[in-house]
Amino acid sequence: MAMIKVDHLTKTFEGKNAVNNLSFELSPGKCVALLGPNGAGKTTTLRMLSGLLKPSSGTVSFEGMKEDGDIREHIGYLPQYPVFHNWMSGKEFLVYVGQLANLTKPQAIEQAEKYLDRVGIADAKNRRIGKYSGGMKQRLGIAQAMIHSPQLLMLDEPVSSLDPIGRRDVLNLMEELKAQTTILFSTHILSDAEEVSDDLLLMHQGEMVESGSIESLREKHQTTKIHLTFRENVDTYLNKLREIPSISEGYIERNEVQLLVADIDQARIDILAKASSEQWPLIKFEVSRVSLEELFMKVVNQ
Ligand SMILES: Nc1ncnc2c1ncn2[C@@H]1O[C@H](COP(=O)(O)OP(=O)(O)OP(=O)(O)O)[C@@H](O)[C@H]1O
């Protein structure tokens, strides 16, 4: 059963669709990455899911929710640019947001202590937030989003503004929190998505381009590439290679011929037979795999 069902969600700003006809489901217990380049519509999607922005059309429904229930009780949200009260200590801030989330003061204090510890900033709990590093602020932001133990945690670009160490810390923390809550986070970096998420939703220009488990997408887009280097006349050989039926696509990059093939064994036989009978000046034959990274770059550069 889906935890969230997003059905034909669209948001139009000034006549332009920031999000266009988006449909997907989130299952409980998963960590899902909303991946896409800048301007793809990730923030707009998360804001609609969290109830902060009204869709132009389409619906978001939550499994097990009462018709008139307030979904915000079940959601924790960390915006891309969180604003903190810098004069407060980390603990004071968490107790304050806990009470805003309808916890009693003793409950808010208990939860604040728990999450200060969980996110690894308990030592700095009485220090003013203004003195925190970027990574510490981001961890405080995650504690803020978790304070009422939501079923779904939504994080907008949680690691983009961090240095490599801060980034590593926050990715590790997300890995730990996965055991406790469903996570949906946005990123424009494929390797961050691959590192912690189970599933991927790939967005471009407001639309969903691909979705599925990282494994299945990797498998689906895994084709083989052959790299050939010739001593001379590379264009002539590219044209001859394009005539071979087992080769699906061919082009020249960095002065080498690159060929995409579905059946590597057949393609190898065909190419080498032709090269040998026609005595091509072939000086390199190399095979590599096309990765999810290439799929992502292809989508982004369209
Ligand atoms: N309030 C708004 N008014 C007008 N246009 C907007 C508004 N919010 C977003 N947009 C436009 O909608 C598109 C999608 O923006 P969105 O912020 O959702 O993308 P994103 O994928 O989160 O990108 P980024 O990583 O840069 O934040 C962009 O073209 C943006 O300029």
UniProtKB/TrEMBL annotation:
Belongs to the ABC transporter superfamily. Transmembrane segments: none annotated. PANTHER family: ABC TRANSPORTER RELATED, ABC TRANSPORTER, ATP-BINDING PROTEIN. SUPFAM superfamilies: P-loop containing nucleoside triphosphate hydrolases. SMART domains: AAA. InterPro entries: AAA+_ATPase, ABC_transporter-like_ATP-bd, ABC_transporter-like_CS, DrrA1/2-like_C, P-loop_NTPase. Residues 4-230 form the ABC transporter domain. This is ATP-binding cassette domain-containing protein. It comes from Aquibacillus halophilus. GO terms for molecular function: ATP binding; ATP hydrolysis activity. It holds the Pfam family ABC_tran. Keywords: ATP-binding, Nucleotide-binding, Transport.
